[in-house]
Amino acid sequence: MNVGIIGTGLLGSAIARRIATEHKVHVYNRTRSKAELLKKSGIQVEDSPMALAKKCDIIITIVKDAQAIEEISFGKNGIIHGKHDSLIVADMSTISPISSRKIAKKFSDNGISMIDTPVMGGPSFAEKGQMVLMVGGKKETYQKCKQVLDLIGEKTFHLGENGAGHAMKLAMNSQIAILALSISEGIILAKKSGLDPMTFLEVLNSTYFKTGMSVNKGPKMAKGQFEPSFFLKMMQKDLDEIDYTAKEFGANMPMSKIANQIYKKAINEGLGEMDYTAILAHLEQSN
Ligand SMILES: NC(=O)c1ccc[n+]([C@@H]2O[C@H](COP(=O)([O-])OP(=O)(O)OC[C@H]3O[C@@H](n4cnc5c(N)ncnc54)[C@H](OP(=O)(O)O)[C@@H]3O)[C@@H](O)[C@H]2O)c1
Prior knowledge:
Layout: E1 2-6, H1 10-19, E2 24-28, H2 32-36, E3 44-45, H3 49-55, E4 58-61, H4 66-74, E5 88-91, H5 97-109, E6 113-116, E7 119-120, H6 123-128, E8 131-136, H7 139-152, E9 153-160, H8 164-192, H9 197-204, H10 212-222, H11 232-249, H12 254-268, H13 279-285
Bound molecules: NADP nicotinamide-adenine-dinucleotide phosphate.
């Protein structure tokens, strides 16, 4: 199969490399230099989303937000200008289900089927094929992409119509944002009490309340290592999407609202390009 990836940032690059182990992969990125790095994995760089669409059966979009998807899809030299009968778009960016439904409708009006396929797990999970996928959209469209998506996902949930995947993804990301804050506060209290933060993690990870984050990210946080796998600025972008979606759907989510304010302050302090767990570094500055 010819698979297109649009957006070769942290996640898109890892997904492109993984899919290239079994399929011919074509990539497009707004900043071409990032896409060029993938050539050594046998991946072909295309000049525009249109050029990529003409050569591909499935396009996976992994860009920042809904505005970016609009640009690469419907803008000048966008995906729709390279449309052909068998083309399918799977959007893996994290956006609100409301925007996703609007985008799916625009694709459908242009004769292209779109599903939403947001993911849980960062680049290292993508490289090992261990992500969890949440799918919204027609089941038969998903079935046509299944062989490719199964390469990156160890478990996939088909959740309903367009937008259902993104609604679930936002419910997941509220967990991530709040959990990073919770572990950070635990580390801070342990330190202030004269305890070793690594011992705090050892105790936490011996209990029912341990998480993948406290096991895998916790020790790096305690050592002040914030090499990004998921930028803090992206986490804050997702909190904006959560606030918007909660408001539209009538969900009261005060913790996510407060979390958003804290992540915004961290960005103002220049931490946006660090891993989202650098929220600890922000909290430590006021201690
Ligand atoms: N990293 C993770 O662990 C993870 C996990 C799940 C979901 N996600 C989601 O996946 C998406 C990508 O995240 P990432 O971590 O790969 O972030 P990233 O490294 O910052 O990459 C962002 C990508 O979006 C592109 N982009 C931004 N604005 C654009 C625009 N207006 N037009 C065209 N392209 C644009 C960027 O192109 P340039 O290179 O030109 O800036 C880049 O390719 C986000 O929606 C994120 O929330 C990430």
